[in-house]
Design brief:
Largest sheet of chain B: none
Keywords (chain A): Germination, Lipoprotein, Membrane, Palmitate, Signal
Structural class of chain B: mainly alpha
Number of strands of chain B: 0
Shape of chain B: globular
CATH topology of chain B: Amino acid/polyamine transporter I
Main location (chain A): membrane
Strand content of chain A: 25-35%
Helix content of chain B: over 70%
Number of strands of chain A: 13
Distance between the termini of chain A: 86 Å
Radius of gyration of chain A: 26 Å
Radius of gyration of chain B: 20 Å
Number of domains of chain B: 1
Oligomer: heterodimer
CATH architecture of chain B: Up-down Bundle
Subcellular location (chain A): Membrane
Shape of chain A: globular
Pfam families (chain A): Spore_GerAC (PF05504), Spore_GerAC_N (PF25198)
Protein name (chain A): Ger(X)C family spore germination protein
Chain lengths: 364, 367
């Protein structure tokens, strides 16, 4: 019994350790919701860092509780800018909720240099699963948007990128860890969605493709949808088909593609299988056998796929990962990679699209 | 009782596959880490089978009692000392490693020596329990944490962010002579059998352990997962930039429909529990084996006096851990880990051989 008290005493004494940790209370913290990096006008302080800080509310109401404070600063490194920013705010900056990183368009070349990405990966509190996006014209403009439907600052952006809220075929999603993987991997090139602010909303319908050194091009919305389907197996898009007499749209239910690379030709054979149902049509779809509409849609989407593949090839970028697949399916280590580098510009693409219409929707 | 043997093996497999081995193997991923994933289990399992068979010759006896049967005290004491210290050091290394991760990701405001001393105090209490209680707490903690860990593993295998092309690209590098370090590291996955040196006291029925053949497959599966999932997530080249491979991999996983979106916090807690239970086992082993050199030591009673040697040993090692942990930096830690990886395999093999020879000579004596 007596010994029991000794143990209890030791346990109680061990509580003395607890106040020793430098823990800051939640109302002494500023939660950073989004980080923006722009190019500044000063040559010796190239980074213009903007942070979107959430102002806490007791009760959440859409459109009312998304007040935020925007702080920004220039620095020769991101660290320096953030350090100096701490003197502008009254609470401790907490990055653990920062789910999106917006890079200004002018900064796009620098992001691929190791130094810029480095800060995000080295900081332990920034999650690797944070979203990456390119801000057009600047990251600060993107962060400075307040939408009417937000429950907390930055909420709309998060909802657009994880496929929880809107599921748009125009929105490409890119994560920080994936971006780093693509920057370093041979045969897989990085990309980023482009966010453009519009008075009190965002428009995210383009994607920027990079090679390992710089921004190569920004794809058009139409190309972005095809791009999304190829890179992320995005399932919920639709196919518009136009001919002289009719115009109809197919909502895709199932999408799958496979490809093989034939090094002797050199050629890439892609088989795309799509199952969907008609969503809109200018005429009744019971006039012709469905195979007629299917062939029509196939022919048109085939040219779209071919167009995108050839465009990516002309830009010498490979965001789909053809090169990595080539490395994965051949067994000669580095020789595969040099062979692929020589082969990719000469590659001819053969995309074969198979569309099956399951239903014409609610009416004929 | 054979399920307790499985727990011992499982805890060592899990702790090594998530903490040590990815780092060592991924550093050598282009220089023969993949064949070592297959050679390691062979070596590890041969040692495991030999050791368990030999220990089962001595029903309900721990290593100290067996050594006393065959060796004079002057030879047994240094042997026990070496064995105990080596086992406890592996626990220390893991605690320091875990404390580094915790202080970086979970509690950056706390000094590492405070963190480590809190960990060490709890581990000392755990290690001083009776052998049976240690086994029971091992079971409870494993049952609590393994399902969560498995969920994470399954989720990461089937996630669309896992790039299987990168995994396949690594297969090109499977016909390369592996280095000693990587073979030794991957055989370390199976080091849990060493626990039998003391826990054999509770294995009194002498029945052969069933389903022993399952262990190599379990270990191989875990090792393949722990090697290839980080590569699939972080890329064949990109993975080189990360230090704590698995922590970074888990950080890249987002589970939308689980109560915590950023699963890294769940993972770190599991890691903490696993590390605690592993260190508890190794320190229990070490303190029991070294404690047996003292006259007052008696595993049968729970009296204060008989536990004193073990307590002193745990406290000394604990203080050593805290001192070491607060003095070294990450580079030194990784160097220590990789030299440990080189050192442990010959040690384990020699130790298993000694016990094997004893079990043979016991049979000869009986005949």
């Amino acid at each position: 019994m007596k010994r029991g008290w000794i143990w209890k005493g030791v346990l109680i004494l061990s509580l003395l350790w607890l106040p020793g940790c430098g823990f800051k209370d939640i109302d002494r913290r500023f939660f950073v919701m989004a980080i923006g990096i722009d190019k500044s006008n000063h040559a010796n302080k190239p980074y213009h860092v903007t942070l979107k800080l959430a102002i806490p509310f007791t009760k959440i109401q859409p459109g009312k509780t998304n007040a935020y404070q925007l702080v920004s600063d220039d620095g020769s490194t991101i660290t320096e800018a953030v350090r100096h920013m701490k003197s502008k705010v009254d609470k401790e900056l907490d990055f653990s909720q920062a789910k999106i990183i917006v890079i200004g368009k002018a900064m796009s070349a620098e992001i691929l240099q190791k130094g810029t990405l480095d800060w995000f990966l080295r900081r332990r509190d920034i999650q690797s699963a944070a979203y990456m996006a390119l801000g057009d014209p600047t990251a600060e403009d993107v962060l400075n948007v307040k939408t009417g439907s937000e429950r907390f600052p930055g909420d709309s952006l998060f909802l657009s990128f994880d496929q929880d809220g809107t599921e748009s075929s125009f929105i490409a999603t890119e994560y920080l860890f994936d971006f780093h993987r693509r920057v370093t991997e041979k045969g897989l090139d990085p990309y980023m969605p482009v966010i453009r602010p519009m008075d009190s909303a965002y428009l995210i319908d383009r994607v920027a493709v990079f090679d390992k050194k710089r921004l190569k091009a920004i794809l058009s919305p139409e190309e972005t949808r095809i791009f999304n389907a190829l890179t992320t197996d995005f399932q919920h898009f639709d196919i518009e088909t136009k001919s002289k007499t009719l115009q109809f749209a197919i909502a895709v239910q199932h999408f799958k593609y496979t490809y093989t690379i034939d090094p002797s030709a050199p050629a890439l054979h892609m088989n795309i299988r799509i199952v969907g149902e008609s969503e809109e049509s200018t005429e009744t779809l019971y006039k012709q056998p469905w195979s007629y509409y299917e062939r029509l849609a196939e022919r048109q989407s085939q040219t779209r796929y071919m167009h995108l593949l050839q465009k990516l090839q002309a830009l010498q970028v490979d965001p789909v990962g053809f090169g990595l697949r080539y490395r994965a399916t051949r067994y000669q280590r580095d020789k595969d990679w040099t062979a692929w580098e020589a082969m990719y510009p000469k590659l001819t693409f053969h995309a074969k699209v198979q569309i099956r219409i399951k239903s014409s929707g609610g009416i004929k | 009782m054979s399920r307790y043997f499985f727990y011992l093996m499982c805890v060592s497999m899990l702790i090594h596959t998530i903490l040590f081995i990815p780092r060592v193997l991924i550093d050598e991923r282009f220089d023969g880490a993949i064949p070592s994933l297959f050679i390691g289990p062979v070596i590890g399992c041969v040692l495991m089978v030999v050791f368990t068979r030999s220990m089962q010759q001595f029903k309900g006896k721990g290593l100290p009692e067996i050594a006393a049967m065959f060796l004079p005290k002057a030879a047994a004491v240094p042997l026990m000392l070496v064995f105990g210290l080596v086992t406890m050091t592996s626990g220390c290394l893991i605690w320091i490693h875990c404390a580094f991760i915790m202080s970086k990701y979970l509690n950056p405001d706390m000094a590492i020596y405070v963190l480590l001393s809190l960990f060490v105090i709890v581990t000392c209490f755990g290690a001083l329990q009776s052998t049976k209680t240690v086994l029971f707490s091992l079971e409870i903690i494993l049952i609590l944490s393994v399902p969560l860990l498995l969920t994470l593993l399954v989720h990461s295998i089937f996630s669309e962010n896992m790039n299987y092309d990168a995994v396949k690209a690594m297969i090109d590098y499977s016909w390369i002579m592996p280095s000693w370090k990587s073979v030794s590291a991957s055989s370390y996955t199976f080091a849990g059998y060493i626990g039998l040196a003391v826990f054999n006291r509770e294995f009194k029925d002498g029945k052969p352990i069933r389903f022993l053949w399952l262990i190599p497959f379990l270990g191989l599966g875990l090792m393949l997962a722990s090697f290839f999932i980080p590569i699939g997530y972080l890329g064949t080249a990109g993975i080189d930039d990360y230090i704590y491979t698995w922590v970074s991999t888990i950080d890249a996983i987002r589970m939308k429909y689980v109560f915590i979106e950023r699963v890294i916090s769940v993972y770190l807690l599991i890691l903490l529990m696993m590390t605690y239970v592993f260190t508890m086992i190794t320190w229990h082993l070490g303190s029991q084996v070294i404690g047996s050199c003292f006259r007052s030591y008696d595993p049968q009673t729970a009296a204060w006096r008989s536990k004193l040697p073990s307590l002193v040993i745990c406290v000394v090692i604990g203080i050593g851990t805290v001192l070491a942990g607060s003095r070294i930096n990450e580079i030194m830690l990784f160097q220590a880990v990789s030299s440990w990886m080189i050192f442990h395999l010959p040690f384990d093999a020699a130790f298993v051989m000694i016990v094997f020879i004893w079990s043979k000579s016991k049979r000869r004596i009986q005949q």
